[in-house]
Amino acid sequence: RKEVEQDPGPFNVPEGATVAFNCTYSNSASQSFFWYRQDCRKEPKLLMSVYSSGNEDGRFTAQLNRASQYISLLIRDSKLSDSATYLCVVNSMNYGGSQGNLIFGKGTKLSVKP
Amino acid sequence: EPEVTQTPSHQVTQMGQEVILRCVPISNHLYFYWYRQILGQKVEFLVSFYNNEISEKSEIFDDQFSVERPDGSNFTLKIRSTKLEDSAMYFCASRFSQSMGEKLFFGSGTQLSVL
């Protein structure tokens, strides 16, 4: 099973639409979860961290379900500028139980059309 | 916001040549990383570095790769004898700690093309 799995998309939506991305992870011991955004040929940029209680930042809402090892990102009222690839990111765990490096999903491509 | 800087932005080299990719992490950060992304593929972890030594490395990071922090500011990735399949975007990243939720800052990357 891949460590972090995402639907590759692309998701083609009109401006103003609501779009949801899903992600599953394989390591039940993972403690940190993030959504990153990557524009074409650019570096990943942190969009938001994901907390157990769920969190919201403006039009963006992230949810975590530890029992199902599932993370989601909801974008409301999508803008043209939201067009990008959205990366689900989970920390690995070292053998000693401490947090290790970040593992990236392949990303879900979003294209918002006028 | 502080930045991780990488040079050069593009590097073209012949197969079998050595390349050194350079990075200046954020000044008070303690953990440094190299990731790579082959065109159309996911971002892949190569190596992490802490306290002047490698703390973790992936299967990709074989004997052809090495990292060094030669002074207090630079963090370099060396590929001794490049192969065609080493062509990728290489991202340097840093963060202050590995605490839960600690943000990872990425540089803008070096696009390596091996001919």
Task: Briefly say what this structure is.
The complex is a heterodimer of chains A (114) and B (115). With 114 residues, chain A is mostly beta strands.
Largest sheet of chain A: 6 strands, mixed
Distance between the termini of chain A: 38 Å
Average pLDDT rating of chain A = 90
How many DSSP-defined strands of chain A?
A: 11
What is the H-and-E element order of chain B?
Answer: EEEEEEEEEEE
Question: How much of the sequence of chain B is in beta strands?
Answer: over 45%
Note the gap between the termini of chain B: 36 Å
Radius of gyration of chain B: 13 Å
Quaternary state reads heterodimer
Number of helical elements of chain B = 0
Helicity level of chain A, as a percent range?
Answer: under 10%
What are the low-pLDDT stretches of chain B, counting only 5+ consecutive residues below 50? none
SSE order of chain A, as H and E?
Answer: EEEEEEEEEEE
Radius of gyration of chain A: 14 Å
Indicate the mean pLDDT of chain B: 93
Query: Which word captures the global form of chain A?
Result: globular
Question: How big a fraction of the residues of chain A is strand?
Answer: over 45%
| Number of H/I helices of chain A | 0
Which class do the helix and strand fractions of chain B yield?
A: mainly beta
Categorize the overall geometry of chain B: globular
**Helical proportion of chain B?**
under 10%
Task: Provide keyphrases for this structure.
heterodimer; A: 114 residues; mainly beta; six-stranded mixed β-sheet; five-stranded antiparallel β-sheet; B: 115 residues; seven-stranded mixed β-sheet; four-stranded antiparallel β-sheet; 49% strand; globular
